[in-house]
């Protein structure tokens, strides 16, 4: 009888969140690649009992309570997609509520026997700032399936149909950003870069996933009333259509001030779409040289503008950027990440 893995999550209950996408991709990966060794319940429910390994992908209170009985049955794992520093600029809360939420988050991670983080930088932060044992924290990167995200032929009719849908004239270069509408995502720098490149169409896929409690909601709402003529906020695009959107784009531009290793970067690279991001410490050890990392303070857009101009222009720079994205997709391939998960889960089983 094979050992069992129960995956618990409610991260995909709100559309447009990278955590939900990461959960779906990880479950799909292990169901496909590890089923020879494990029986996997990818959408486990608490009433269904626990497995030999119980993997909690979100920090819901019912999962916090469930970890104690789950630990009696098998190993418990918490997936670390965020820590207090990376949430503070996403959700607007009164200071007392923020303190309670941060304490709860860290208590959740401490209660789990093992932690998996999507970014190696987290291991140092959790150990140095919050006193957690680094020996129980493992870095395993996010992953996207090549079945879902891959290059399309330039004349694929779905690309033309999406251009029509979003009002992008044929032949006009397209720069895409995808993510929640938040100040920390670099929304206002995105608009400033668009104003500097009026011949380019800028698309943003995503909305206010947290509604009015989203940090900067009122400021962004005001800006949305006077968007540059070449900016289209297309809202939430169904995940099944995002591959076409990444292929429609000539460049993926993510000017965030705070990111770990977003699923959108992996998705863009899987489509061989060149990536331009702000240079962040969080990208060290994960993004390597697969994207153009621009050192720019808030409001400093000149280097973003220059890099996008170079990438959008046919020639050697664009060809190299496409090749970089392709190498990134190959590095984070199914076999490599599946091996890491197999090694991790196997080590949790009793000797």
From TrEMBL:
CDD domains the record matches: GT4_PimA-like (cd03801)
Alphabetical GO biological process terms: lipopolysaccharide biosynthetic process
Keywords: Glycosyltransferase, Transferase
Segments forming domain Glycosyl transferase family: 163-325
Organism: Helcobacillus massiliensis
Name of protein: 1,2-diacylglycerol-3-alpha-glucose alpha-1,2-galactosyltransferase
GO terms assigned for molecular function: glycosyltransferase activity
The Glycosyltransferase subfamily 4-like N-terminal domain, residue ranges: 52-147
EC number: 2.4.1.-
């Amino acid at each position: 009888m094979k050992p069992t893995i129960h995956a618990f999550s409610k991260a995909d209950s709100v559309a447009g969140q990278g955590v939900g996408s990461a959960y779906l991709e990880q479950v799909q990966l292990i169901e496909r690649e590890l089923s020879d060794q494990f029986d996997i319940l990818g959408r486990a429910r608490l009433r269904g009992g626990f497995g030999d390994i119980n993997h909690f992908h979100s920090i819901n209170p019912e999962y916090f309570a469930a970890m104690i009985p789950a630990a009696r049955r098998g190993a418990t794992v918490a997936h670390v997609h965020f820590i207090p520093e990376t949430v503070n600029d996403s959700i607007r809360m009164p200071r007392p509520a923020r303190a309670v939420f941060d304490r709860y988050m860290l208590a959740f991670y401490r209660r789990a026997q093992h932690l998996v983080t999507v970014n190696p930088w987290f291991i140092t932060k959790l150990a140095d700032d919050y006193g957690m044992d680094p020996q129980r924290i493992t870095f395993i990167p996010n992953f996207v399936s090549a079945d879902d995200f891959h290059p399309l032929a330039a004349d694929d009719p779905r690309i033309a149909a999406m251009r029509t849908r979003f009002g992008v004239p044929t032949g006009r270069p397209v720069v895409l950003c995808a993510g929640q509408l938040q100040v920390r995502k670099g929304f206002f720098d995105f608009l400033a870069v668009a104003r500097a490149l009026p011949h380019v169409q800028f698309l943003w896929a995503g909305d206010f996933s947290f509604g009015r409690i989203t940090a900067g909601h009122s400021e962004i709402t005001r800006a949305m009333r006077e968007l540059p003529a070449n900016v289209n906020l297309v809202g939430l695009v169904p995940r099944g259509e995002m591959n076409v959107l990444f292929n429609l784009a000539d460049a993926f531009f993510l000017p965030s001030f705070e990111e770990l290793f977003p699923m959108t970067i992996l998705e863009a690279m899987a489509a061989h779409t060149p990536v331009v991001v702000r240079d962040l410490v969080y990208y060290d050890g994960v993004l390597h040289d697969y994207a153009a990392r621009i050192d720019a303070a808030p409001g400093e857009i000149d280097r973003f503008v220059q890099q996008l101009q170079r990438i959008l222009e046919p020639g050697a720079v664009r060809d190299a950027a496409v090749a970089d994205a392709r190498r990134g997709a190959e590095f984070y391939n199914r076999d490599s990440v599946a091996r890491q998960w197999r090694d991790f889960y196997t080590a949790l089983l009793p000797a």
